[in-house]
Design brief:
Low-confidence stretches: 85-90, 259-277
Distance between the termini: 65 Å
Number of helices: 26
Oligomer: single chain
Number of strands: 23
Strand content: 15-25%
Largest sheet: 6 strands, antiparallel
Shape: globular
Radius of gyration: 31 Å
Structural class: alpha+beta
Mean pLDDT: 86
Length: 715
């Protein structure tokens, strides 16, 4: 529909409009530009499913146009985006007409917006108090379902809001969508239900992991995954994607002929007698209860009903703090007038119902420009490309740096210097680039060139066949030294408090710290002269350093940063020897005999202890008083859990994982690193992944929740 040149022109126009203040006088040309930009972005979003701006950016432009037309209705044109839902469809599936148009929702972004909307609602209704129903705004793919005589007969995408694609066969692959439901018990013959198809976070994670194994590029987010799945040609593949559907709105129904009143649209007037005789709901919250009772996944548990907008606001804000704990993605809350009769009285515009509004959470995506790429060296020598972008606020944080992970990711996303890029920050974690926007290129963009030599030490980089990363193998590389020291002093390693990354870097740059053993030779008298280091802070640091010398051996092993050796493997190794340097005499075969140590881990351990520099480092640590000996005791052999093995997966809510593992080991139990027939108990926290699925296939493994584990342990 749009050439590359037209796309660039319209995107440039959009950026000009976004950077202009909306309080200025708007000309006729401004109005034409606004309409052009909005129609273009509706096409990108609804037709191509490939937006070039974020939802808040689109909403800002739409509100500007809406405000200008409301101020002077004579300036409204028949083709204005405010006068109709965007049209245009993909042609992959038969096109069908919705029984009732699927309108958008008016959006709000703060408490003041909701207060203003509540004021308008009360003025429109003539009431001093309105009952509202509040529920999550699911971030997925919108669908419409039709049931006739209790059977599912049609499923459709939103499309342009008036017409959508017939995806009935694919809808039937979603197990949370009942193939039949007893609507006749409510006197309903035909009903149209609206909802959202989602891919939950865990399913999305697994799906991207499977793509990675096939060396395919990952999907950007669960919403795109869900939307793309609904348009797949193979229904069996749709079934394998573990999609879910939330159904949250009844847009239309007709009765069986036994009702006193044919309500038609759900928002129409209904007699109390009909409601009582056939139990048809009079409120939105009651309709969610009905759907839940009929076997649908409605937000019945998540919804709340309030009679004051302040309570609505509090619930929305509280839910925003919990969004990352949910198994699925949401991008806001929906506030609806609860009473159907009142909904009908308030009516709707051509764009949205007046009786509902969306409270949007802080944006998780933003568009920016890729300025340059820097290459950072990790503690194991891995070279990580880091994108420097034009700083942009996302989710309350200004983002200027984004990890690009490795060369394969850069190539799969076709990233170039100067590209316009879409950046996402989901779950308050490290942001990442979702995609580039090649349609906006001017020809001045440049390919990203990866280094052949280490940016820190100059040594030649290597890349093994089984890895996607470049690596510096110089153990004396200064960048690696700093990262290794930071890891060594960290909480899960030697736990040297008051010794954070900032202090490590400061001491290294001043020449006070050159390597790990140097931690125990710090010139405290010089440090005391630095700003911010008083007598008490110096004493705390000195005490923490001294205390670390007595840490158990497994903490030291983990702190050494041996590649592939995590906390669990470190404990296994600590139990295998009485004296750490003895590992220099271990063969690969001997290491493979240890619990949960495979060839890759064993090879890394052999390589570490074969290195003379590493052995010298251990000698220096011992000379400086660091414990290199195992404190193995008989209690691990005789406790109440002796002979039993445990593994923890997912996020624990009551205990830290390290504390839970310590409880097991204190009673003589073993902690394994993976699921196998040797495992007795798998303790499952929230967001449990592949380990749970694997454990389900081994009958001898008992699966416990965290609460069951605590009861098992007598806590």
């Amino acid at each position: 529909m749009h050439s590359s040149e037209q796309t660039r022109r319209l995107q440039d126009l959009t950026q000009t409009l976004l950077h202009r203040g909306t309080d200025k006088t708007i000309t006729d040309q401004d109005l034409r530009s606004l309409r052009q930009a909005l129609v273009f972005h509706e096409y990108r979003y609804y037709i191509l499913n490939d937006p070039l701006i974020t939802d808040p950016e689109y909403d800002g432009l739409y509100k500007w146009l809406e405000k200008a037309e409301a101020a002077d209705p004579s300036r409204i044109t028949p083709d204005s985006p405010t006068q109709r839902v965007a049209r245009g469809l993909t042609k992959n599936f038969p096109v069908i007409h919705h029984l009732v148009p699927m309108l958008s929702l008016e959006n709000s972004y703060n408490a003041d917006d909701l207060i203003d909307w509540d004021r308008k609602a009360r003025e429109l209704s003539g009431l001093s108090t309105i009952e509202y129903c509040v529920e999550p705004k699911f971030d997925g793919a919108s669908i419409s379902l039709i049931y006739e005589n209790d059977l599912l007969v049609r499923g459709a995408t939103r499309g342009d809001g008036v017409e959508g694609d017939d995806i009935t066969t694919n809808i039937k692959q979603i197990r949370s969508v009942p193939l039949s439901a007893a609507f006749s018990n409510y006197g309903i013959e035909q009903v149209e239900i609206r909802g959202e198809v989602l891919m939950n976070k865990e399913s999305f994670k697994k799906f991207n992991a499977a793509l990675a194994e096939q060396q395919l590029p990952p999907l950007a987010n669960p919403r795109n995954a869900a939307s793309g799945s609904l348009h797949m040609k193979d229904p069996a593949e749709v079934g394998r994607r573990n999609l879910e559907a939330f159904l949250y709105h009844i847009s239309y129904f007709s009765d069986t002929g036994n009702l006193d009143v044919d309500r038609g649209e759900m928002t129409g007037t209904e007699s109390a007698h009909a409601s009582k005789s056939k139990k048809t709901p009079l409120t939105h919250s009651a309709s969610l209860d009905m759907l839940w009772n009929l076997g649908f996944r409605s937000p019945q548990k998540e919804k709340k009903v309030f009679s004051h907008i302040r309570d609505v606001i509090d619930y929305c804000l509280d839910f925003e703090t919990k969004r990352d704990q949910l198994p699925y993605e949401i991008d806001g809350m929906v506030v609806k007038v609860n009473d159907f009769t009142l909904q009908d009285k308030m009516g709707m515009t051509t764009h949205h119902p007046r009786w509902a509004i969306a409270f949007k959470f802080k944006a998780r995506q933003a568009s920016s420009k890729l300025l340059k790429v820097e290459f950072q060296v990790g503690r194991t020598g891995s070279i990580t490309p880091v994108a420097k972008i034009e700083p942009v606020p996302i989710g309350g944080v200004t983002v200027g740096s984004v990890s690009l992970f490795n060369e394969d990711v850069v190539r799969s996303k076709d990233l170039r210097l100067g590209d316009s890029v879409l950046v996402e920050r989901a779950g308050d974690v490290i942001p990442y680039i979702v995609k580039s926007m090649p349609e906006l290129r001017t020809g001045k963009e440049k390919k990203i060139v990866f280094p052949t030599h280490c940016p820190a030490c100059g040594d030649e980089l290597v890349k093994t066949e089984d890895e996607a990363v470049l690596r510096c193998i110089n153990i004396n590389c200064p960048a690696q030294v700093v990262e290794r020291i930071i890891h060594y002093v960290s909480k899960d390693a030697m736990d040297i408090r008051s010794f954070g990354a900032a202090n490590v870097l400061k001491f290294y740059e001043l020449g006070y710290l050159k390597d790990v053993p140097g931690i125990y030779q710090l010139p405290f008298e010089k440090i005391a002269e630095l700003e911010g280091f008083g007598e008490k802070s110096i004493e705390n640091l000195r005490t923490a350093v001294e205390a670390s010398k007595k840490q158990p051996l497994h903490r030291l092993i983990f702190g050494l940063g041996i590649r592939y050796v995590g906390e669990t493997t470190a404990k296994t190794l600590a139990k295998a020897v009485s004296y750490l340097p003895d590992f220099k005499d271990f063969s690969l075969e001997q290491l493979l005999e240890l619990e949960d140590i495979g060839p890759k881990v064993a090879g890394s351990i052999v390589q570490f202890f074969e290195n003379p520099d590493n052995r010298k480092m251990l000698t220096r640590l011992e000379e400086l008083g660091v414990n290199l000996r195992s404190s193995r005791s008989d209690k691990t052999e005789t406790g109440s859990l002796a002979g039993l093995s445990f593994l923890f997966t997912g996020t624990l809510n009551e205990l830290k994982r390290s504390d839970a593992e310590a409880l097991v080991e204190k009673q003589g139990g073993k902690i394994l690193g993976g699921v196998s027939s040797k495992l007795n108990y798998l303790v499952v926290g929230s967001d449990a992944g592949s380990k749970l699925e694997k454990a389900k296939k081994i009958a001898s493994i008992k699966i416990l929740t965290e609460k069951e584990f605590l009861r098992f342990m007598g806590n």
